[in-house]
Design a protein that fits this description.
single chain, DNA_polIII_beta_N, alpha+beta, DNA_polIII_beta_C, DNA Polymerase III, Chain A, domain 2, Beta sliding clamp, 7 helices, DNA replication, DNA-binding, 9-stranded antiparallel beta sheet, 369 residues
Length: 369
């Protein structure tokens, strides 16, 4: 029982699926399931919260003898394949509870676990609570556009992920860590489906998994499934009710608009933050009719950074404090030459939005200086 495949071909698939297993686990959650037949080589991983399966097409490998199924240590297997010369032919054989990897003069023997120990995470078509198909690139881009706003270890568990909300013809993604909120609307085809919160820990896995082709999203209770040609990813979902983000955005939209050049604003924030010492990078904005002055806060009294950029603002002058790092991330994420910064007062959320992209909204909460 032996398969032959190029190291680069196998490494390409391992790059994605090997993200899932638990790094230090010695049980099945630290293993990959290899299932080999004449038609397909399947690589599966499970960490207790997610399960991913990728199929390597039959034209990329050859099988000698009968197929087999076995669990191999994920980290060791991935590192061994990555260490081999690019394009080298690799043979993987299974016998007597061991997997042997050979390439040229190199030979590696790994202990295995029975395939029967690998858990199964799935749901059937009749258990599905809704399905939606869209381009994988569209989904990946939308997740990245708001995913950085999601909390990771907040005690409010419903913030530790990205909300997927559906209406006829529209999918909305929202994420917040309590200090900022990101919202993006994506036009889709199909009927509304079950809302869900995708865990933060799964964001990058989904984005790397979906690829450029079509991807189907399906849900069933506390589980979501992302399917594409040659692969499927299941993940458990976060329980809880996401905050009413639309109410927060609507309130912020009523503020006063300052129009600025995005790159100038991002550059000024980054420069000023260099002298804002401490665990949190604080900056003070003084907004007037034709300029925004940005000043460092919290550093050495003798070390002060001050930058000024032009703006178009028609309201009373305003001073407000922000976490400079969070503000900078939002500004850089807005892919437009000009952005609108909508101030609702020194104690209320500020809305940032690209002029020509109203489907993307970010609300940044002020800080007390």
């Amino acid at each position: 029982m032996k398969i032959s495949i190029k190291s680069t071909d196998l490494a390409q698939y391992l790059k994605t699926v090997a993200r899932v297993p638990q790094r230090k686990a010695t049980d099945v959650y630290g293993h990959l399931l290899l299932e080999v037949s004449t038609a397909v080589l399947s690589l599966s991983a499970h960490n207790g919260q997610q399960q991913m399966t990728l199929d390597v097409p039959a034209d990329l490998f050859s099988l000698t003898g009968e197929g087999f199924a076995v669990c191999v240590p994920a980290s060791k297997f991935d590192q061994v394949i990555a260490s081999l010369p690019k394009g080298a032919m690799v043979t993987i054989s299974f016998a007597e509870s061991k997997v042997v990897i050979a390439s040229g003069r190199s030979r590696f023997s790994l202990a295995t676990l029975p395939a029967e120990q690998f858990p199964v995470m799935e749901f059937t078509a009749d258990q599905s609570k809704g399905e939606l198909t869209l381009p994988g690139g569209t989904l990946s881009t939308a997740i990245h556009q708001v995913g950085f706003c999601a909390a990771r270890t907040d005690v409010r568990t419903y913030l530790n992920g990205v909300l997927f909300e559906f209406k006829p013809g529209l999918m909305t993604l929202a994420a917040s860590d309590g200090l900022r909120l990101g919202v993006v609307d994506v036009a889709v085809e199909g009927q509304p489906m079950q809302h869900f919160i995708l865990p933060s820990a799964c964001i990058e896995d989904v984005c790397q998994f979906v690829g450029a082709g079509d991807v189907q999203i399906a849900t069933s209770g506390n589980m979501a499934r992302f399917s594409r040609a040659g692969g499927v990813l299941h993940t458990k979902l976060i329980d809880g009710k996401f905050p009413d983000y639309r109410k927060l955005v609507a309130a912020a939209e009523k503020g006063d608009v300052a129009r600025v050049a995005r790159e100038e604003f991002a550059g000024a924030m980054a420069r000023v933050a260099l002298l804002s010492e401490g665990t949190v990078s604080l900056v003070r904005l003084a907004v007037t009719a034709d300029a925004i002055s940005i000043q460092s806060v919290g550093g050495n009294a003798e070390d002060i950074a001050d930058d000024v950029l032009p703006c178009d603002y028609h309201a009373e002058p305003l001073e407000i404090g922000f976490n400079g790092s969070l503000a900078g991330e939002i500004v850089r994420s807005l892919g437009a030459q000009e952005i609108d910064v909508i101030f609702s007062g020194a104690a209320s959320g500020t809305l940032l939005r690209a002029r020509d992209l109203p489907s993307h909204s970010f609300v940044l909460m002020p800080v007390r200086l």
